[in-house]
């Protein structure tokens, strides 16, 4: 133990004797470790932001639509596509309600673009969505003011509407929108409710919508060409897979003209019926975030690799400059392992000092990134214990990996030759 302590003192003196060279060597490790930690923190922050963006959606929410072949671009291999002449109907919605036991709620959804106006404020090509009163509950929406349209208003085809967050902000600014009116393609609609922002990835398109009753949209407008999708709510998250199979079986039965995938008729990735659940979307987004985090980690690791090469280079220079010292120590009885440990300690000290400074800089960088305004669209970095652990382990590994060869080279020097060359 005393010998090891003495070696640490000797290593510290050797490094301090050449402060500038030591600092420049540490710089590569500082940049590498800092890059690894910041990029891991950025990846975790992005993943946390993605998962948080799904909090505004019901975890049992599903969507059914037909998969049509795109006019351009590559097509998925082995996938089946619905004919263009086929579309969803309200009878499909009723059949799901009656026959799909794993589905709690099924609602039609129609979408179209229209001009929305209030006084002198005009929003062109604005998204109009028509559905039934339970739509907002299924989609996990929260009301800021007012209420949803009622079953009676839907049956009576009343001209009432609910405004998404951005829609009522742009149309009414500071005014109270409830029981006021907006014009949709020139027709007057009474505002009965406004929604809070959906937040996350969906805010850009979902908050820019106006919602009207389904029968109003079908019977009293010429905006819609039919049902675009069916919004669904499963009995629970445990029933989602069963619900997918029931929906596919029912749609194949109701629409014999639908082609059946040869590989697996019940593979939702290949079937002509597109069924997407919020749970699967969350998994997809989380997987994308993890893949991106791995890419960032590789980029950071390359920076650390370059720093490690710098450590090896400087250690080789140090051995060349201290040839006489090595020869003298071996002549006085120092064994090979002592020389190896001596130079490994020096490499480790450079890497550990660089790692500590790199972690500190990474922490300050993450704090600065977290304070950037929302307009920068940069997720708040999340420094996890795993990120710090990875940085520490990689730093130690760098010191060992890039220090072992110079140390072994120093240990193999013949004492007489070393003394002669060092003169």
What's the gist of this structure?
With 423 residues, this protein is α+β, with helices and mostly antiparallel strands. The protein has helices at residues 2-17, 19-53, 90-99, 135-138, 151-155, 165-172, 203-206, 214-219, 240-254, 278-321, 323-331, 336-370, 385-411, 415-421, and strands at 61-66, 103-118, 121-131, 143-146, 160-163, 181-184, 187-195, 209-213, 229-234, 273-277. The mean pLDDT is 80.
Looking at this protein, list some descriptive labels.
14 helices; alpha+beta; elongated; six-stranded mixed barrel; 423 residues; single chain
Describe this structure in words.
- By secondary structure, the chain is α+β, with helices and mostly antiparallel strands.
- The chain is built from 14 helices and 10 strands.
- It has helices at 2-17, 19-53, 90-99, 135-138, 151-155, 165-172, 203-206, 214-219, 240-254, 278-321, 323-331, 336-370, 385-411, 415-421; strands spanning 61-66, 103-118, 121-131, 143-146, 160-163, 181-184, 187-195, 209-213, 229-234, 273-277.
- The chain has a 6-stranded mixed β-barrel.
- Strand 2 (103-118) and strand 3 form a beta hairpin.
- Helix 1 crosses helix 12 (336-370) and helix 12 (336-370) packs antiparallel against helix 13 (385-411).
- The two termini are 33 Å apart.
- The model has no long low-confidence stretch (mean pLDDT 80).
Describe the secondary structure blueprint for this structure:
Layout: H1 2-17, H2 19-53, E1 61-66, H3 90-99, E2 103-118, E3 121-131, H4 135-138, E4 143-146, H5 151-155, E5 160-163, H6 165-172, E6 181-184, E7 187-195, H7 203-206, E8 209-213, H8 214-219, E9 229-234, H9 240-254, E10 273-277, H10 278-321, H11 323-331, H12 336-370, H13 385-411, H14 415-421
Parallel strand pairs: 3-8, 5-7
Antiparallel strand pairs: 1-9, 1-10, 2-3, 2-6, 2-9, 4-7, 5-8, 6-7
Helix pairs in contact: 1-12, 2-10, 2-12, 2-13, 3-9, 10-12, 10-13, 11-14, 12-13
């Amino acid at each position: 133990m005393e010998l090891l302590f003495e070696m640490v003192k000797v290593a510290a003196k050797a490094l301090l004797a050449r402060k500038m060279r030591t600092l420049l060597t540490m710089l590569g490790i500082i940049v590498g470790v800092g890059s690894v930690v910041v990029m891991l923190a950025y990846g975790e922050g992005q993943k946390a932001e993605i998962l948080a963006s799904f909090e505004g959606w019901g975890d049992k929410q599903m969507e059914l639509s037909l998969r049509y072949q795109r006019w351009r671009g590559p097509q998925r291999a082995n996938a089946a596509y619905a004919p263009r002449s086929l579309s969803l109907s309200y009878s499909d919605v009723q059949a799901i309600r009656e026959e799909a036991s794993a589905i709690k709620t099924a609602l039609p959804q129609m979408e179209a673009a229209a001009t929305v106006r209030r006084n002198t404020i005009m929003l062109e090509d604005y998204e109009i969505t028509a559905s039934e009163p339970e739509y907002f509950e299924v989609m996990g929406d929260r009301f800021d003011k007012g209420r949803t349209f009622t079953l009676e208003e839907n049956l009576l085809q009343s001209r009432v509407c609910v405004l998404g967050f951005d829609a009522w902000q742009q149309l009414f600014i500071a005014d109270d929108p409830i029981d006021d009116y907006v014009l949709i393609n020139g027709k007057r609609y009474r505002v009965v409710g406004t929604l809070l922002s959906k937040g996350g990835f969906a805010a850009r398109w979902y908050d820019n919508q106006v919602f009207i009753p389904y029968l109003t949209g079908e019977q009293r407008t010429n905006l819609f060409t039919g049902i675009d999708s069916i919004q669904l709510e499963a009995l629970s998250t445990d029933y989602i897979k069963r619900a997918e199979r029931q929906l596919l079986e029912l749609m194949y039965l109701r629409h014999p003209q639908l082609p059946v995938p040869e590989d697996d008729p019940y593979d939702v990735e290949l079937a002509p019926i597109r069924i997407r659940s919020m749970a699967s979307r969350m998994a997809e987004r989380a997987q994308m975030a993890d893949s991106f985090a791995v890419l960032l980690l590789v980029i950071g690791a390359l920076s650390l690799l370059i720093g490690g090469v710098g450590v090896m280079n400087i250690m080789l220079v140090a051995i060349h400059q201290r040839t006489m010292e090595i020869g003298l120590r071996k002549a006085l009885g120092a064994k090979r392992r002592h020389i190896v440990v001596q130079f490994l300690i020096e490499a480790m000290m450079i890497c550990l000092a660089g790692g500590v400074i790199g972690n500190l800089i990474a922490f300050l960088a993450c704090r600065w990134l977290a304070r950037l305004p929302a307009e920068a669209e940069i997720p708040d970095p999340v420094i996890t214990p795993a990120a710090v652990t990875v940085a520490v382990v990689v730093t130690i590994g760098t010191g060992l990996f890039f220090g072992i060869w110079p140390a072994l080279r120093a240990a193999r020097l013949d004492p007489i030759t070393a003394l002669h060359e060092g003169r």
